[in-house]
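Section handout 9: paired folding examples.
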Amino acid sequence: MGRRELLRIDAKVEVEFNNFEQFYREYTKNLSKGGIFIKTSNVLKPQSILEISLKLPGVNRPLSLVGEVVHVIEPELASGHGWDPGMGVHFVDFEESIQRVIEQYIARKIKQDSGGKVSDRRAHSRVAMRLRVKFPSLDVLEHDYSEDISRGGIFIQTKKPRSVGERLILTLVHPETGQEIELLGEVVRVNNEDPQSPGTQTGMGIRFVDVDKAKSKSIEKFLGLDFPVESI
């Protein structure tokens, strides 16, 4: 008996993407990390187990996956912030063979693409390291906003900072709603551990790159604040 047979399935859902670009955005954001965000007003409770039928654009046979709901954005909350209602789902039954099918599908579609848009996106995601930043509490998020985010950047504490000039794709996760926002950043300063200065925060200062009006508005909605974020 496989793992899937041991799980209690609470619901079955079908997920279909309108086009390859839409699917590829979801892949680079969630699917490649073992999860998916399902946009729906009929959200289920966290820890619910779903059997997911994933239909790829241009492919007749859907992929079968099982996932657990890990966070929910209720329709009421979504409408008040301009977000999409839905469920963040983490795969609990995701075979390597399915991963290979998805990767081969993406490689084939990229090769077929003649406009270069998908190829450019693929190259961009390969060059930039991806980093997930989950704020432990709303107080920490508000502190970071007042210190850094409002000025177009963020300081990330880490004992292994990246090099100045390196670009990162940051996924900021809201501590209460689970809402995520993806930003491109560049390391502009590094604080290394210094035995002569105990208590110094080690980490890296990151400047947000290409923050236009639309992205700035998305950050404001993510923060739940009405103050503009500067682009520096």
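Moving on to protein 2 of 2.
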Amino acid sequence: MKILLVDDDPDVVEAITLSFSVQWPEATVIGAKDGRSGVATFSRENPDVVLLDISLPDTDGFQVLSRIREQSDVPVLMISARGEELDKVKGLELGADDYITKPFGYMELSARIRAVLRRAQSLPPISGGGKFVAGPLGINYATHQVTLSGQPVKLTPIEYKLLYQLTRSAGQVLLHDQLLTKIWGPEYLGELDYLRIYVRRLREKLEKNPQQPIYILTERGLGYRFAGQSVQA
């Protein structure tokens, strides 16, 4: 298990490394002190998860995140001394998997890393298999393959799990907290930003006009409903 920590504060790097050596001895922490070395180290080391500070001496963490996302869907957890909601939303929109604000407890950080790894590595079970078709959208539950007009659609594990939950309950309203619990876990109850952002990302990949969706509909104040005409086998 390799964790890339991109942070220019040597005290933070030392504290996280020491904490993980006790709590998580199977993990190796690789440090990078700025954005340029962070991107280079990522490409060289191929880490399992990235801890990425927003404030870096040569750039900001958002630009580093964009560079990482050009190469990989590896889990990225943003860390920052800033707690503004806009920073959190921006990080999630750019593809971060989670966001944690300094100061934080190292047990909490470890728990969040394990959670993002678990979400990234697990997909819904293939038991029951079958296929789902709604107009040009097709899903093969057994292979986790999604197509649009016959062309494969690349989804991240979280995007696929969200689509899986929505289509498995097509026609039904799934409440915000139902989806958050099933996809992110009970500790994310009330974290609607995560859900809104991933719904938007799914719409951008699947809807002809994401601003006027025909598949993933918002039930205001309640949740979301998959409304396409469907055939399940």
